[in-house]
Amino acid sequence: MEIIKQLANTMNIKENQVESVLKLLEEGATIPFIARYRKEVTGALDEEQIRLIESEYQYLCNLEKRKEDVIRLIAEKDLLTNELEKEILACEKLTEVEDLYRPFKEKKKTKASEAIKLGLEPLAKKMMSFPTSGNIEALASGYNMEIEKALEGAGYIISEWFSDNAYYRKWIRNFIYNNGLITSKLKKNAIDEKKTYDMYYDFQDRIKYIKHYRVLALNRGENEALLTVGLDYEKEKIIDHLKQKIIKNPTSFVVDYIIDAIKDALKRLILPSIEREIRAELTEQAEALAIDTFKDNLENLLMTKPIKNSVVLGFDPAFRTGCKLAVLNPFGEVLEISTIYPHEPKNEKLKSCEILRNLIQKYNVNVIAIGNGTASRESETFVSESIKGLPVKYNIVSEAGASVYSASKLAINEFPDLTVEKRSAISIGRRIQDPLSELVKIDPKSIGVGEYQHDVNQKNLTSALTFTVEKIVNDIGVNINTASSSILKYISGLNKKVIEGIMEYKSKTPFQSREEIKKIKGVSEKVFEQCIGFLRVPDSQNPLDRTKIHPESYEKAMLLLKECHLDLKDMDTKEFKSTLQNQNVEQMASLLNTDHYTLSDIISELIHPGLDRRDELDNVLLKSDILEIKDLKEGMELEGTIRNVVSFGAFVDIGLHNDGLIHISKMSKQFVSDPKEIVHVGQIVKCYVDHIDMEKEKVNLSLIKD
Q1: Are 423 and 326 in contact (CB under 8 A)?
Q2: Given this model, what pLDDT does residue 624 score?
Q3: How many CB atoms lie within 10 A of CB 55?
């Protein structure tokens, strides 16, 4: 119960909300299911909050278990006091628990343990009593060794005592973190050919305030043996603090020896480990922020508005091997594939133009999707010139991960007779028709909307990105009869065997209702409960089967309609929608003996059955002509699409070979701490040319009109 209370306080929610989530998770409910269909139980917590409860509860349980283990291990040595037990139980981090346990740990062979074996512990204790009578020679004699050797050994024991002191370590850790600097220099004889790390050749920043992307850059430069990274702080202040705490009698003849032991403890035992801990903590925090950025960018990319009911031509650019074209009908099915050679070395521009125009006219192509890889801008120039006079526009589409998909087993099974490049053209075309359905075929890490993604913990990154895809897929929902196995694997409650059963079943006959899904082998009551709300059957005789209303609430939906004197067959009429919109949800919920969350969702779905949230977003920016850097002037107003958001700004596709950069300082007249507060991936923005570097072909943009 203490863990639940702590978690509720941290998240600023009620204890019963935490308890409810944990109970549902224990019963096998998935996060998307809980977020959508158990709002009345959780108080409408969203997916992120539920996931945080799950992960934080696990951490706190592990912390409690470690506390219990440490208390037991110390008690077994008969060294546990009531005060120490209270201190351990009050710890909020594993580091604090380990600091308190350090003095009681079984140690490997150390200088101190060897000195103890030689019988020098009594001498160390005498020295720490800070005697004033006698002298050092008398104190250190009688140990069957030279006085200097005895003092040296006792000093090692004292140093280890200081190192094992949890309070000293905590104070030093906080002092360095709050007052120290993190520094870097170019390693001697290191060659940074591309000047990637030039700003870090002689760099320093406050540890407490360093930006997370700089931490990751420093780590990478260090791993590539180009940078030497360290922490810089005032050691003398740490020594002075320890002297004040440790030296009880400044007039004692052992003071100099104790000061030497303090310095030895710091140099050999305390500072190296604390520096490692601080670097590890900085890295952990930096990775968490970088992963959050990747998650947010991925979510916005997956939520890109589809171009529906359009014939699309996927255009995979290339030089020597030719550009691959794939014409797709509005359902993403291939109508025709062709190859043209408009670029070097063949330069068959006229012939290529003729083929392209014929395909556009033959199939009434509405949109051309051009991949943004090699030869992309040359292909854009070719397309813009070729389509003049035709009612067709184009868009530059990110190819990130397209090659991964094209060579995958999934793509081979889908198009066994096509080359990798032709499959890639199909994927590029489908990415503009339905970005979500196509992007789920690719490992999220290959989609390329992150920063320093190879420098973070890959297990944590995979977990976060998978969660993001699951959240979006379940939020949108899928048509079970058109859904691929790639998208079904993210649907709540479905496993590989059930998905195989679904794919096999619908290959013979389409599903006619949600109830029919129960026929699939492996679909237990629990599986059905968890998945069914996220699966649509648009052609079902029951109109509720094409909504997000869960079958468990069908009866409530029908009772609602009865109270409102409405009929499901009138679902698409204005009168039907208007009547539902005018209902008092609280009163109706009380009348139907249900909760207002469920009823509110039912009404919303009956008014907008199976609403796709993506339809409410910005349309994809389509173009019919190109822009060149020589056309630009500072202050010029442009329209562009945000391609990637990073810690220091955002990259915008304005139609040039290289994306323009909006630096964080150019996003608002007010201070902006995080670019994600202002822009997101896929957003269409009005921006202004801030600076043009013709030599590097780079453009800096601004969201602020001068």
Answers
A1: no
A2: 79
A3: 11
Residue 305: Cβ within 10 Å count:
17
Query: Is the peptide bond between 250 and the residue preceding it cis, with omega within 30 degrees of 0?
Result: no
pLDDT in tens, 121-144: 999 999 999 999 989 999 999 899
**Of 323, 246, 247, 304, the residue nearest 680 (C-alpha):** 304
Whether the Cβ atoms of residue 615 and residue 305 lie closer than 8 Å to each other: yes
Q: Which two tokens stand for residue 30?
A: 């998935």
Paired sense of beta strands 181-186 and 227-232, if any: antiparallel
pLDDT at 1: 64
Contact 538, 511 (CB under 8 A): no
Edge-to-edge strand list for the sheet holding 227-232 = 202-206, 181-186, 227-232
pLDDT higher than threshold 90 for residue 469: yes
The neighbouring-strand residues paired with 691 are 700
- Give mean pLDDT, residues 489-503: 96
Report in angstroms the alpha-carbon separations of 485 from 170, 291, 437.
52, 27, 10
Alpha helices in 321-434 (DSSP H): 349-363, 376-386, 402-406, 409-414, 420-433
Which residues lie closer than 8 Å to 444 by C-beta, 6 or more apart? 298, 462, 465, 466, 468, 469
Q: Specify whether the CB–CB gap between 651 and 661 falls below 8 A.
A: yes
Residue 230: CB partners within 8 Å, gap ≥ 6?
A: 182, 183, 184, 275
Instruction: Find the mean pLDDT for residues 341-359.
Output: 96
Return d(Cα 215, Cα 138) in angstroms, integer. 53
User: How far is Cα of residue 667 from the mean position of the Cα atoms in its chain?
Assistant: 23
> 628 pLDDT band (50/70/90 cuts)?
confident
Decide: residue 694, CB within 10 A, 0-12 exposed, 13-18 middle, 19+ buried.
exposed
Which contacts (CB < 8 Å, 24+ apart) does range 272-276 have?
Answer: 274/169, 274/172, 274/173, 274/176, 275/176, 275/230, 275/231
The answer to which of 41-50, 70-79, 222-231 has the lowest mean pLDDT is 70-79
Q: 685 and 704 in contact (C-beta within 8 Å)?
A: no
Q: Which of 359, 444, 462 is nearest to 405 (CA)?
A: 444
**Helix, strand, or coil (residue 441):** coil
Backbone phi, then psi, for 186, in 5-degree steps? -70, 130
Orientation angle between helical segments 147-164 and 255-264, nearest 10 degrees: 60
The pairs formed by 547-553 with CB atoms below 8 angstroms and a separation of 24 or more are 547/605, 547/606, 547/609, 547/610, 548/36, 548/477, 548/601, 548/605, 548/610, 549/601, 549/602, 549/605, 549/606, 550/37, 551/514, 551/515, 552/37, 553/598, 553/602
Alpha helix (H) ranges present in 389-481? Answer: 402-406, 409-414, 420-433, 435-439, 458-476
